[in-house]
Specification:
Layout (H helix, E strand, L loop, with lengths): L6 H13 L6 H29 L2 E5 L8 E5 L1 H24 L2 H5 L2 H17 L3 H20 L4 H32 L4 H11 L3 H18 L7 H6 L3 H25 L8 H22 L3 H22 L2 H32 L15 H15 L5 H15 L3 H26 L18 H16 L1 H16 L1 H8 L5
Antiparallel strand pairs: 1-2
Helix pairs in contact: 1-2, 1-5, 2-3, 3-5, 3-11, 3-14, 3-18, 3-19, 5-6, 6-7, 6-11, 7-9, 8-20, 9-11, 11-13, 11-14, 12-13, 12-17, 13-14, 13-16, 13-17, 14-15, 14-16, 14-18, 14-19, 15-17, 15-18, 16-17, 16-18
């Protein structure tokens, strides 16, 4: 039954490969994409149910047991992220059906979305740090194509920047892995944790851990986010929503996994660095969000603020703070997909993302307007929406652990996030109507179905937070007690 772990990786991969042979059959590609994603969502729910009842699932690929073979490990952290990532892909794909033109569709946009999902799910499920690199690369190769697809000047310019940044970070990733292997003689994450606990995390290993942190910071937008606002502003809205909801989150997951399982012995150095980077990220991200008047830039800087806030919880590394960080991470994936989808719809209607050039859309698109309003409140953490619960748990953990300044930064930046997104709402939907039905560049109605589903989920996650927390706390228990993960990988009975 542990073979089920490979399905969230293999289903998108095989479906995407098959679809390459049906390039001009757009409707068939759309059906296959939706069916494969629904199937993956169902399997992810089954995996979560199984883990909640029987504990961590481990698949030794090819029958070679850890640490010699390749292991896939499904704990509650990875399983929850696989479920939400697949669901977000489904929502963004539904939005893409009506918002992307046929040029994109016949040039394999759906196969590349599925390949990206394969890389994301593989990153969450692998138990081997080298294969984490491999799945990162699968995800990045798809993102390179999706970013450049369309061939606009801005896309090509940002693609070059994006590729260069990721090639540098991938090179550093390989160097860090090589150093780690030369010291410990293993790449299996559970085995690495055991080895480092035995030999001690000395200065050299702490330096290697900071090299890993630099790599993951580049990928997640933690402090080293200079590439992100422009890159996320270049692709079509559906792809931008996919990037905002997923790509930085894989980097966050990598930090959560490595600094709770492998490099947790020198928190005075590593976790303090994470906290400092997180606080600077929140401040700079919030300042960027309020200083811009383009929807794409405002939303992109909001991605950065959330990265800082989630890693504030990870840096404290207590049970409560990790619970809050994971809950907020799940919320943020849904909320970012939602706000980017709705923002993309606004841009498509006006044909511009400059707030000073339009107003009064509420008259024509009231449903879109109120969905955006709820999304804005969710991003800021207004109760009873899902963002509130995660924020309260992280801030409570910050005050308890004595990080008062960071907690104040978290509150202030949340207010600035609210200001930045309400600025979009007020300027887009309120005021004098400058647009008639005939002047609209697009209908924007393709955002209503995925937008409504995501809003419903965000409300349900907020109202049913206690139920969701039972699963999140199970994930946090493994993060605060690495022996649970290690014993499961080596099949030790405690």
């Amino acid at each position: 039954m542990s073979n089920v772990l490979i399905l969230p990786i293999i289903i998108p991969l095989l479906t995407g490969m098959v679809m390459i042979f049906f390039r001009r059959h757009i409707r068939l590609q759309q059906w296959l994409t939706v069916i494969s994603m629904l199937l993956t969502v169902g399997i992810s729910i089954f995996i979560i149910h199984r883990i909640s009842r029987q504990g961590i699932i481990v698949l030794d690929v090819g029958g070679w047991q850890a640490p010699y073979g390749i292991s896939l490990v499904g704990d509650m952290l990875s399983a929850l992220l696989v479920l939400v990532a697949t669901f977000i892909c489904l929502m963004c794909t539904l939005f893409a059906f009506g918002s992307m033109n046929n040029d994109h569709k016949v040039h394999f946009v759906y196969p590349y979305i599925l390949l990206l999902l394969c890389g994301v799910n593989g990153s969450f499920l692998t138990g081997d740090i080298f294969n984490l690199f491999v799945f990162f690369e699968v995800m990045l190769i798809s993102s390179y194509v999706l970013l450049a697809l369309g061939g606009k000047k801005i896309q090509l310019r940002e693609s070059i920047k994006y590729v260069i940044i990721n090639v540098i970070s991938s090179t550093l990733f390989v160097i860090a892995i090589a150093y780690l292997y030369s010291i410990t003689g293993t790449l299996n994450m559970a085995h690495l944790s055991e080895r480092i606990a035995t030999i001690g995390q000395d200065g050299l290993l702490t330096t290697v851990s900071l090299l890993f942190l630099t790599v993951f910071a580049l990928k997640s937008g933690l402090f080293l986010f200079f590439w992100l606002p422009s890159s996320y502003s270049a692709p079509p809205p559906a792809i931008a929503a996919l990037f905002a909801a997923l790509l930085t989150k894989v980097g966050i997951y990598a930090i959560m996994r490595t600094f709770t399982l492998i490099f947790y012995h020198q928190p005075g150095i590593t976790h303090t660095v994470i906290l400092c980077m997180a606080s600077i990220t929140m401040v700079l991200g919030a300042l960027g969000a309020i200083s811009h008047w383009e929807i794409k830039k405002i939303l992109a800087y909001n991605v950065i603020v959330a990265v800082g806030f989630i890693l504030f919880g990870v840096g404290m590394a207590t049970f409560d703070s990790l619970t809050g960080a994971l809950f907020y991470l799940l919320h943020d994936m849904l909320a970012k997909a939602l706000i980017f989808i709705l923002g993309g719809a606004i841009i498509s209607i006006f044909g511009s993302d400059k707030l000073r050039h339009f107003s009064g859309l509420l008259l024509f698109r009231p449903s879109l307007g109120w969905l955006f309003f709820i999304a804005a409140l969710a991003l800021a953490g207004v109760p009873p929406l899902s963002g509130f619960v995660g924020k309260v748990i992280i801030l409570k953990g910050g005050i308890t652990e004595g990080h008062l300044i960071m907690s104040v930064i978290g509150i202030i930046t949340s207010l600035l996030v609210l200001y930045s997104v309400m600025k979009i709402f007020i300027h887009s939907f309120w005021g004098e109507t400058l647009l008639s039905e005939g002047d609209q560049k697009a209908a924007g109605t393709s955002a209503l179905l995925p937008g409504s589903i995501l809003v419903t989920l965000i409300i349900a996650m907020g109202l049913g937070a206690e139920w969701v927390l039972t699963y999140v706390e199970q994930a946090a228990e493994v993060m605060t007690n690495p022996s649970i993960y290690i014993d499961a990988v080596f099949k030790r009975i405690s």
